[in-house]
Each structure stands twice: as C-alpha cells, then as structure tokens.
C-alpha cells in the first residue's frame, strides 16, 4: 500500500473510535442534591433539640416554683403555730407570777366582764384542742362553712369557755363576710359585753358598720363615737373616725 492509502485507513479508524465517545451524554448532577438535604435535616434536628431543652427547663422551673410555694406555706403554718405556743407560754408565766404574788381571795363569780381578764387559756385540754381546730378551719384550710359549724358547736358545748368572746367574734366575722348582717350583729353584740376582750373594739366598729348598712345612721354614729372614746389612738379608733367623716 502506498502512503496515501495508509493515511486514509488511519483516519477512518480514528473517526470510528471517536464517534461513540462524542455521542455519549455528559453526566448530569441534580441541583440541591443529598448534601443540601442533609444540612437542612441537621438544622431541623438541632432546632427540635433546642426546643425540647427549653420545654424541659420550663417544666423544671414550674416544678421548683410549686415546691417553693408549698415550702412557703409550711413555713407560715409553722410560724403561726410557734407564735401561738409562745403566746400561751407567756400567758402561763404571767398567770404563775400572779398566783405567786396575789393574796388569797374568794373565788369570783364568772361573768362576761371578768371571764377573759382572769384567764387566757383553758385548763381543759379538749376545750383548747377543739377551739384551735375551729380556728385552723379558717386560717389553714379556708373552710369557712366548716368553721361556722365548728364555732357554733363549740359555744353549745362550752357555754362558759374562756374562748367564748373569741368564738363569737369569729362567728360575727364569718356571717359578716356573707352579708348575713343580723347573725353577725348577734355575735358582735355578744363580744361587746366582754369589757376586757381584745376583740371588743373591733366588734363595736363592726356593729357600727352593720347599723350603717341597715340604715340606722344615728346608731352607727353612737357606736363609732364609743370606739373613738374608749380606744383612743388605736387603729380601730382611726377607722371609726374615718367612718364618722363619711
């Protein structure tokens, strides 16, 4: 073969080999492939984890707040009981000192005026227990209906108790809060008969307010003036003065 023929054959072979290569399609890569999808999923998982952490932290904070409220309530109850115990202890010491220094005298007849001035606690433990239970229905349990029933039962069972003026006072407050003015008036009037009672001033003030609400302006004025005159300088007297200025 001559050189021209060889050159022609070589060219034909090159064309036949290159043709399939040129015809093969170029590889295509999808936009937003698996790499981008993985990043989004990872971000979503991170956000979910953060949200769950915030929820868990809020739940823990709520639980701690609840436990703190419960602890505060326990401290307040313990403080009240301790103060009550200390007050009775002081009263007992005062009573002992009085008995040591007092001269023998005839036993006085128990009257509303002398009842609370001679004693501040009962020697009957069951009487003390039942009175405290009735008070706790108000201060601790907020069971006002139960307290009303308990104080009425207490007065029926212990009509000459040293706690009589206090029991009447609590009943007056309970009925007053329900706007049962006639019932409240009855019990506040009973308290006012105990001249030495520490509840008497407030009972007179409440009687004045009841008279005012029932349209007895003159009676209310007389009661307020009694508070100002008998208990000058006290908070109750100041309240009575405000009522007189209305």
UniProtKB/TrEMBL annotation:
Region (Disordered) residue spans: 104-126
Gene Ontology, cellular component aspect: outer membrane-bounded periplasmic space
One Pfam family per UniProt: TolA_bind_tri
Domain of life: Bacteria
Record-level GO BP terms: FtsZ-dependent cytokinesis; protein trimerization
Record keywords, A-Z: Cell cycle, Cell division, Coiled coil, Periplasm, Signal
Annotated signal peptide: 1-23
InterPro entries, per database record: CpoB (IPR034706), CpoB_C (IPR014162), TPR-like_helical_dom_sf (IPR011990), TPR_rpt (IPR019734), YbgF_tri (IPR032519)
Sequence ranges of Low complexity compositional bias: 104-123
Entry's localization field: Periplasm
Protein's job: Mediates coordination of peptidoglycan synthesis and outer membrane constriction during cell division.
Sequence similarity: Belongs to the CpoB family.
Record protein name field: Cell division coordinator CpoB
Organism: Enterovibrio coralii
Taxonomic placement: Bacteria, Pseudomonadati, Pseudomonadota, Gammaproteobacteria, Vibrionales
Gene (UniProt): cpoB
